[in-house]
């Protein structure tokens, strides 16, 4: 078995800051979705559009000046953390002008990217003003996996070089993995890649239905069945953290509780039916065409940003977010702290924040069955 990685938990200071910000309704964390355009065409993507589709869209892309104005106002309102994402953010024409100004403002900036466009010139520019972290989605450990999932040819070697060059430059890299039937054959190789390169590789087997890209995709995506998603989720945990941590994880599943995910583009779980995650209380997302939303996975609620001040739009978003409630079935479910389903998941799976995301119900049921069977075998 490959060397086990330490379990990564959110720093206590970060948790404290978000706890304070959530109570004060302060926008501590922001995401700027610069563009939906990408040089990959991943089957399960929630936002991708071609340049032609963007040109035909009924709303224009946000401009450099608009992004800078939002950043300044949001920083005055409390924003410290900022994630730049896309599509592929390095394709956005004014990326470097924006990045340099944001860096000079003292914001803690992370960047989500597929890594394929990071060459020597990009690394040199990043070295001058290092981001807090570069999050690269590793779609496989071979060109074949990238071709199947992303429709991109001969790019794994480019991504590999980018990761190596970033690390050599002292820039922190994290690898995210979107696991689907198209790339699961590369999963073990991806785990080994992360270990061999000394970087965190965090795979995810749950793929949101891409309702922002296509409203007809409620409850659908090119993804695993709930049973497969459960199996690979547990399999991934064991390979990442080793048997000892895996056994503790299985016991936690049996006892109806696993730790919620931490910072970045993730949420903290909800309680008592009210949406108490960071989205809409301490965190926000601005779409490429100028809507302010609680979370990039949600088509609603959304508040107009173009032509308005950030402060006014944030106030409206907080009010709209407070109206969201989960289903009473989810609220009272004994597995509530296993699935960590949220308004975004419920909306993507059912079309309504108060709907019951049965895909997650099935996934959790299978996780419990696997945990029980595995522990029973180990205890024999």
Notes on the protein architecture:
The protein is of the alpha/beta class. The chain has helices at 12-24, 51-56, 64-77, 95-104, 120-128, 143-150, 156-168, 187-197, 226-254, 310-322, 328-331, 336-339, 343-350, 358-379, and strands at 29-33, 81-85, 108-113, 133-137, 173-178, 200-204, 283-286, 291-293, 303-304. The chain has a 9-stranded mixed sheet. Helix 8 (187-197) links the parallel strand 5 and strand 6. The longest helix is centred in the middle third of the chain and has 29 residues, at 226-254. It starts with 11 loop residues before the first helix and ends with a helix. The model is unreliable at 261-276 (pLDDT under 50).
Concise summary:
Helices cover 43% and strands 11% of the residues.
Record keyword descriptors for this entry.
380 residues, alpha/beta, 9-stranded mixed sheet, 14 helices, 9 strands, globular
Write the layout of secondary structure elements.
Layout: H1 12-24, E1 29-33, H2 51-56, H3 64-77, E2 81-85, H4 95-104, E3 108-113, H5 120-128, E4 133-137, H6 143-150, H7 156-168, E5 173-178, H8 187-197, E6 200-204, H9 226-254, E7 283-286, E8 291-293, E9 303-304, H10 310-322, H11 328-331, H12 336-339, H13 343-350, H14 358-379
Parallel strand pairs: 1-2, 1-7, 2-3, 3-4, 4-5, 5-6
Antiparallel strand pairs: 7-8, 8-9
């Amino acid at each position: 078995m490959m060397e086990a990685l330490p379990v990564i938990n959110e720093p206590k200071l970060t948790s404290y800051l978000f706890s304070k910000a959530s109570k004060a309704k302060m926008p501590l964390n922001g995401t700027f979705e610069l563009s939906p355009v990408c040089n990959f065409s991943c089957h399960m993507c929630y936002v991708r559009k071609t340049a032609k589709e963007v040109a035909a869209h009924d709303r224009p892309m946000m401009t450099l000046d608009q992004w800078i104005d939002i950043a300044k106002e949001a920083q005055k309102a409390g924003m410290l953390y900022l994630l730049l994402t896309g599509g592929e953010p390095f394709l956005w024409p004014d990326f470097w002008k924006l990045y340099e100004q944001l860096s000079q403002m003292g914001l803690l900036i992370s960047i989500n990217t597929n890594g394929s466009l990071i060459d020597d010139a990009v690394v040199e520019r990043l070295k001058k003003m290092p981001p807090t972290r570069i999050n690269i989605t590793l779609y496989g450990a071979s060109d074949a996996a990238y071709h199947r999932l992303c429709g991109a040819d001969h790019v794994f070697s480019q991504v590999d070089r980018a990761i190596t060059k970033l690390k050599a430059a002292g820039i922190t890299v994290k690898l995210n993995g979107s696991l689907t039937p198209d790339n699961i054959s590369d999963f073990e190789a991806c785990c080994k890649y992360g270990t061999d390169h000394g970087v965190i590789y965090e795979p995810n087997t749950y793929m949101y239905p891409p309702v922002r890209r296509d409203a007809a995709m409620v409850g659908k995506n090119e993804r695993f069945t709930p049973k497969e998603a459960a199996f690979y989720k547990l399999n991934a945990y064991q390979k990442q953290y080793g048997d000892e941590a895996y056994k503790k994880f299985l016991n936690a599943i049996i006892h109806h509780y696993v730790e919620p995910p931490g910072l970045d583009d993730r949420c903290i779980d909800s309680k008592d039916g009210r949406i108490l995650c960071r989205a809409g209380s301490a965190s926000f997302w601005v779409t490429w065409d100028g809507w302010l939303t609680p979370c990039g996975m949600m088509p609603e609620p959304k508040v107009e940003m173009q032509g308005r001040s950030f402060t006014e739009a944030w106030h409206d978003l907080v009010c709209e977010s407070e109206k969201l409630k989960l289903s009473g079935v989810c609220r009272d479910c004994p597995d509530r702290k296993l699935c960590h389903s949220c308004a975004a998941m419920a909306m993507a799976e059912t079309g309504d924040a108060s709907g019951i995301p049965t895909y997650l119900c099935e996934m959790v049921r299978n996780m419990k069955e696997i945990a029980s069977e595995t522990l029973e075998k180990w205890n024999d």
